């Protein structure tokens, strides 16, 4: 309604110029915009439509998937060393921020059906979120979502103690 009134009052104005002056695109946080291939100049988009993905760049964390047999002794606040496969020799430091409430299979869209009596035991994975220290920012290259990393948590116990 507002746009139609503006066009009627100003016969020299074109629809795209009026719309562009009245359009505001807002993001909930700072970051990198991706997946915009389907967006074209002059395209009309309904309010609330998803037009792109936003990857936040303000906080840096790593979601590590530990085997259920590896989470003994893990708790929030423990120190973590991280190596990123894309940057050999780079060592980042952080702390355990949180430990997932369930295994990844519990969040699957199609849960596994065990009606046939499948007795094969599969080790489950539990997500552990690692918050990287701000001290890393001086020498940290750009990390991208989905990169592979090696995560080592210092639980205060040696490998020999864990075996006993």
From TrEMBL:
It comes from the Bacteria. It is a single-pass membrane protein. Its main location: membrane. InterPro entries: AaeA-lik-b-barrel, MFP. The keyword Ubl conjugation does not apply. Pfam families: Beta-barrel_AAEA. Residues 62-153 form the p-hydroxybenzoic acid efflux pump subunit AaeA-like beta-barrel domain. It is found in: Membrane. Keywords: Membrane, Transmembrane, Transmembrane helix. This is HlyD family efflux transporter periplasmic adaptor subunit. It comes from Devosia rhodophyticola.
């Amino acid at each position: 309604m507002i746009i139609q009134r503006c066009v009627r009052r100003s016969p020299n104005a074109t629809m795209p110029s009026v719309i562009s002056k009245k359009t505001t695109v807002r993001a909930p946080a700072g970051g990198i915009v991706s997946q915009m291939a389907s967006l074209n100049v002059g395209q009309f988009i309904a309010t609330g439509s998803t037009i792109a993905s936003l990857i936040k760049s303000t906080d840096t964390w790593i979601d590590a998937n530990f085997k259920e047999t590896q989470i003994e002794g893990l708790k929030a606040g423990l120190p973590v060393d991280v190596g990123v496969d894309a940057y050999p020799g780079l060592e980042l430091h952080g702390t355990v921020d949180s430990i997932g409430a369930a295994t990844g299979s519990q969040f699957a869209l199609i849960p596994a059906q065990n009606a046939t009596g499948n007795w094969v035991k599969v080790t489950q994975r539990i997500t552990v979120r690692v918050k990287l220290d701000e001290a890393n920012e001086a020498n940290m290259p750009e990390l991208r979502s989905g990169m592979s990393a090696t995560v080592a948590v210092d639980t205060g116990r040696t490998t020999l103690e864990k075996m006993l």
